[in-house]
Amino acid sequence: MANKQWIWFVAIAVGIILIANGTINLGGLFGDKDVVPPVIPGSEGCNIVPSVTQSLTDKLTPGTAITESSSEWRLNGAYLGTTEPSSVGTVDVIFINNTGYLSELVTGFQTECGAKPLIATMYANTSASLTYYSDNGLSALTWQTSNETAKAAALTYNWNLHFQGVDKKATGKQMFIVELSVPANVSSATLGGLTPITVPNGYSRQLTNGYVSAWILPSIVGNTAVDYNLAVTAATAKVIDGNVYTTIYNMQPFVETDGTFNAGDKAFNSLNTAKYGSSHTKNFIIV
C-alpha cells in the first residue's frame, strides 16, 4: 500500500512540473486555444508592420523643421520608388525638398518590427558667389566691364577664383566647367591641383568649338571662403583671347535611371537629364 501511495505521489509531482514548464497544455481541455500572433509576409515574423517615422531638420539651424516634398526608397538593394518599406531590412532613402534644400541621402538604416524613427538633416541650398581676379591680381573680372588683357603666345594665365559661401547654407559638391577659345589655342588648364573629369553630355556648350574642362569642387558650407588657382596655358605660337565662360552646378543625391542612388557627384543622370540643385555662371572677356 505504501508503495502505491509513493508511486501516485511521484506521478502527481511530475505532472505538476510538466504543466508548469508548458510541456503539457491544459487549455485544450477547457476549450481554450493558444493565441498565435499573425505573421506579416516578408517581415521576419513581426506581428506589427515595420515602418519608418521620419523627422527632418535644418542641418545648420538646429530645431528648424523641414517638410519633405517626396522621398525615394530602397530596401535590401531593391528600388521601391516612393513606397515606404514595410518589411525588416536595410533601407537607403533620398529625402527631397523642392523649396530651398538640397536632397539628403541616408544609407544603412535598419527597419524593425513596428515603427522606428529616422532623424535626418538637410542643407539649405545656395550658390557661393564667385569672383575671378585678373592675372596680375589687381582687379575683379566682370563681363564686358572689366576685361583680362591678352598675353603673348604660349604664355600662362593664372586667375585666382574666390568662392564666398553663405551663412547657414551650403552648395553641395560643385561641378566647375570652364570654356574658352578654340582647342588648338590651349595647351592645358589646371584648377588647384584637382583631377579633371569628363565634361558631362548634358552640359550645353557656349562656344561651337571651344576648349572645355571640368572639375569637382568640395561643398562650401556656411560663411566660409575658398580660393583656387585656374592656370590656363596657351599652345606654342598660339594666343588665348575672346570669351571665357564658367558654369557651376551645385549637385545633390538623385535616383539614376536604373533605380540606383547617386550620392551627389554628378550634375546629370545617364540620360543627360539635369539633376543638380542649382547652377550659376560667371563670364569675362580676354581682349
Q: Which structural traits does this protein have?
A:
elongated; four-stranded antiparallel β-sheet; mainly beta; Immunoglobulin-like; 287 residues; 38% strand; five-stranded antiparallel β-sheet
| SS content category | mainly beta
Number of strands: 17
SSE pattern: HEEEEEEEEEEEEEEEEE
CATH fold title of the largest domain: Immunoglobulin-like
Q: Which CATH class of the largest domain is shown? A: Mainly Beta
Tally of discrete structural domains: 2
User: How much strand?
Assistant: 35-45%
Helix content: under 10%
Strand order, main sheet: write it out. 8-7-9-13-11
Q: What is the average per-residue confidence, as pLDDT, rounded to a whole number?
A: 89
Largest sheet composition: 5 strands, antiparallel
What is the global morphology?
elongated
Radius of gyration: 32 Å
Given the structure, what is the number of helices? 1
Low-confidence stretches: 1-41
Query: Which CATH-level-2 architecture of the largest domain?
Result: Sandwich
Q: Termini separation (Å)? A: 125 Å
